[in-house]
Amino acid sequence: MAIIASNFKTNHTRKSTALFVNEVNNYLKSNNIKNEVYVFPTATSLDLFDTVPTFSIGVQNAYATANGSFTGEIGTTQLDEFEIKTILIGHSERRHILGESQNKIAKKYEFYKELGYKIIYCIGEPLEVKNQGLIKTLEYIYEQFDGIDTNYENLILAYEPVWAIGTGVTATNEDIENIHNSIKEKIKKPLLYGGSVKVENVREICQIPNVDGALIGTASWKTEDFIQILENTKDL
Ligand SMILES: O=C[C@H](O)COP(=O)(O)O
Asked: What CDD domains does the annotation carry (predicted)?
């Protein structure tokens, strides 16, 4: 069974998110799809969504707090309102564009772990590291586990090479297999691949050994494409 996750990033409105959720829900229910499905809308589009949940809605980010004076952030008081119990942590855009340090990421991880959240924890190397070869790449990736309890029961990992994210350049099957094999040897947790996964290649990628599913940005934002992705992976 493939794990398929859609990260909306800074896309969709409240209204279009509700339509997306509704259509995906209808598709999953009427086709009896067993995939484990996650959708990460923007924080402004969170809702209880008046549908029987056949999949999980999570947040792309939240602060390690229940509430308080943290301008621009949300905490568990806001997440509880929408019964959110799933969070993405360590995404490369938060690391590299928004400047989240490993230390801050580890603190956030610990906070949400203590609360029992399902955590999709992202790791991945930039191009200059990839160009230094597999050993250096793995060293870089393992540093992203500093302060992270990889034995946590509600942990899903996502390997997302930074150079493949939003670029249209998917990692080769060989690259994916090498990295996934190495990570899996050390950490026995579900491991997704992310980085320019498309409708056309999602099935092939999910069939690579030690790939348990995909974390998808761009190719998942149109409802019909996301449904096609689910359709293409439903029997894996
Ligand atoms: O969270 C998703 C990843 O960053 C992949 O994004 P992408 O599918 O647009 O390359």
From this structure: TIM
